[in-house]
Amino acid sequence: MGVTLRQVLELVGKLDDSSGENAPRERLRRFLHENVKEAAEIRDYVQECINASGEQYSRALQDLVNHLGILLGFEVVHGRYQGVQGQIGFDGHWISPKIEKRPEFHLVVEVKTTEVFHINTATLVSYVDSLISQKAIQGWKNALDLYVVGRPDPEIRQLEYSIREEWRTDQLRIASVESLLSLAEMMTEYDVTHDDVLTVLRPSGPSVDSLVDMMTRSIAQAEEPEEEKMILGQPSTEGTVAYWLTPVKADEEATAEETIRTLVGKEEVYAFGDRTPGRKDLKPGDWICFYATSKGVVGHAKVASRPDKKMLSTKVRHPDKYPWQFQLSDVRLYLENPIVIDDELRSRLEYFRGRDLSKPWAWFVQATRRIGKNDFDILTQIELPKSRYSR
């Protein structure tokens, strides 16, 4: 098992803006530069930051996001943790060097850990204006402000509205850390280039998450058939119990946890889309666990009916996108104590047997997939009642 972020932070000391080679922030950044070469490793550390609280973890997240910028191919200038008068207050300044016909491009980054915050878009815009005045950036045609959010929330939609209403779509973007991690993993595994990353970060709308979601979902589903064949060996059939993992993301109306609490916990219902993997195979008696993106597995339940185009609950949002509803029973939620899929846990999963645990692994939680009973037990960490159908 690798070193946890908590252990690293205990070694480097309290993060602050003090300077010098042995300052805690420099020790942390040096550790990341020398030891963290893969996005999958950053993902584990980011999960720790999101699941923890306090200034130390908020500041560590800022350094992790900046290190992620390096993996994405940018030259990175670290900002201060805490602003002071007379200095530009950005969290990070990412520079894409000029190459042949592509001009130099700059991202001025602001990192937010949680969903509850107040953002003044004019503040981040002023950072770019100041850098232009100092001739560090040629002009707005070569720059973009980027908000990076650790845990997106429906309230972030208000920021998107503000960006549009203030006519700043050519200046401001929003991205979750999850989306940036996915881009870094695609650079490693799928020949996505730094120029491709720039293309994604400069779309027509203010948020890049939907485009990255589409790309990662396609990659995750492409992994599915090979993994099913290799690990499980045979399809789900009547008379056998199948076990499923399904991801739940925040949307414009609710967090992933709120969706699970309301739909799974209170309504005992869940819904799939037309193209959700496994929709046609899911059946009564199967078990399904729910992964809240960037948090961990936060609940599980027994499947009580096949997915059908019946309105079992009016709480299903966007029923046009998720028309296949099914009933649940034996629901157990542990929203406050998520099962984090870190490297130690992955090392015990059959799905990762023979895999390099330092390599990207997000594909595992980016699409609904069938898993083995042992993996399900590990992911839920709760013993299931014995069934005559268990394999």
Question: What can you see in these coordinates?
Answer:
There is one protein chain. This protein is an alpha/beta fold and 391 residues long. The protein is 36% helix and 17% strand. It has helices spanning 5-12, 24-35, 39-51, 55-71, 121-133, 156-165, 177-189, 194-201, 209-232, 256-266, 343-346, 373-380, and strands spanning 75-78, 92-96, 105-112, 143-149, 172-176, 243-248, 269-272, 287-292, 296-303, 324-333, 369-371. The model is unreliable at 227-234 and 384-391 (pLDDT under 50).
List the helices and strands and how they pair.
Layout: H1 5-12, H2 24-35, H3 39-51, H4 55-71, E1 75-78, E2 92-96, E3 105-112, H5 121-133, E4 143-149, H6 156-165, E5 172-176, H7 177-189, H8 194-201, H9 209-232, E6 243-248, H10 256-266, E7 269-272, E8 287-292, E9 296-303, E10 324-333, H11 343-346, E11 369-371, H12 373-380
Parallel strand pairs: 3-4, 4-5, 6-8
Antiparallel strand pairs: 1-2, 2-3, 6-11, 7-10, 8-9, 9-10
